[in-house]
Design a protein that fits this description.
- The chain is α/β, with parallel strands linked by helices.
- It has eight helices and seven strands; from the N terminus they run αααβαβαββαβααββ.
- This is Class I SAM-dependent methyltransferase.
- GO terms for molecular function: methyltransferase activity.
Amino acid sequence: MSSDARDSNTDAGNGAPGLENGEYVNHLERSRTVWDRWSDWYEMSENDLEPMRETAIDHLELRPGDRVLDIGCGPGVNFERIRSDIGETGTLVAVDYSPEMVAKARQRIEDHGWENVEVRRADATTIDFEDEFDAAIATLSMSVMPDVRRTVENVHRSLVSGGPFVVFDIRAVPTGPARIVNPLLWRFLRWYANWNPDGDVVDSLAAVFEESELVETYFAGVTYTVRCRKATSEGS
């Protein structure tokens, strides 16, 4: 599939609630700069986090023929596993704002010859999709969004009735004496990933989705997986 024509160049800050337009755009552009910088090094963490990402994908319970959305796909670390679950009859659409990450994701697609996987360079908070998805996933991407709540709402709108959304992400230490490291952790995540400390991913998921459950935690709760599901409409 050709995806270059789908790259979004619109003003990403238009109408973003909860943020001044300039603040929203500045955060988005910082993310682009940060993730362009780390695009050559991202694979260093790919293997270390693979078991957690695989478990998150397990929670989607994908089937052959499913249409899947990957939010903040980076260089495409989830593609091979998702593609193996949905088969040649399924479709995977991935979104990332970093041009360098998108380029590497598209190269991965080309190297594997996947004809049912495409990557769009766009802001996940504001992008509109022409078709609904059977499932969606976000791994280590929701917490860097400039407007977490609105991104969650956008994913919710993009899912079919009853569709799952699984998020694997990172946060400050939630409880216990280890919280003493949080100030250092905040600074590191802000520098390393342009982390948004004002966007509570877990609370946003619970507020928007009809079902939301924290199903996995790692490293004193710093990394975690939440499984959500859109309500099933009557007659579905």
